[in-house]
Amino acid sequence: MKVRKNSKKLATIISTARDMEVMSLDNGFNGVPVTSIAPSELIASVLARFGFASIFDNSDGTFTLRVHGNLWYCFTADAA
After folding, report:
1. pLDDT of residue 3
2. Angle at which helices 8-16 and 39-49 pack, to 10 degrees?
3. Block mean pLDDT (10 aa), the chain, length 80
4. Which of 68, 67, 65, 66 is nearest to 76 (CA)?
5. Which of 28, 32, 30 is nearest to 19 (CA)?
6. Number of other residues whose CB lies within 10 A of the CB of residue 27
7. 45-78 as b/e: b if 16+ CB within 10 A
8. Pair 33, 39: CB distance under 8 Å
9. Do 34 and 42 touch, CB atoms closer than 8 A?
C-alpha cells in the first residue's frame, strides 16, 4: 500500500528506517546494503529531489522507496 507523503505515518517511517538495501539495474537488482548515508537522510533526500518517488508499505515491517523502474530501496521501519 502506498504511503501518502503528507501522512503522520511517513514521519515515523523515515525516523525509524534501518537495514536499507539498494536495488538497481547497475547491481542486477541484488540487494546491496546502503552504508554511506543514514537511511533517514537518504529517504528525505530522495523524496525532496524526486517528487515522483513513492514509499510502499509491504505489510511485513518492510518498505520500498521506489524512485523509478530501475532504482528502488528496501528497508525496515517501525510503522505507527
Report:
1. 87
2. 130
3. 83 94 93 94 94 92 94 89
4. 65
5. 32
6. 11
7. ebbeeeeebbbebeeeeebbbbbeeebbbbbbbe
8. no
9. yes
**What residues form DSSP beta bridges with 56?**
2, 64
3-state secondary structure the chain: CEECCCCHHHHHHHHHCEEEEEEECCCCCCCEECCCCCHHHHHHHHHHHCCCCEEEECCCCEEEEEEECCEEEEEECCCC
With a CB cutoff of 8 Å and minimum separation 6, the contacts of 74 are 20, 21, 23, 31, 62, 63, 64, 65
Sheet holding 2-3, edge to edge: 2-3, 54-57, 62-68, 71-76, 18-24, 32-33
Looking at residue 1, what is its pLDDT? 85
Cell of 20: 536499507
Q: What is the CA radius of gyration of the chain?
A: 12
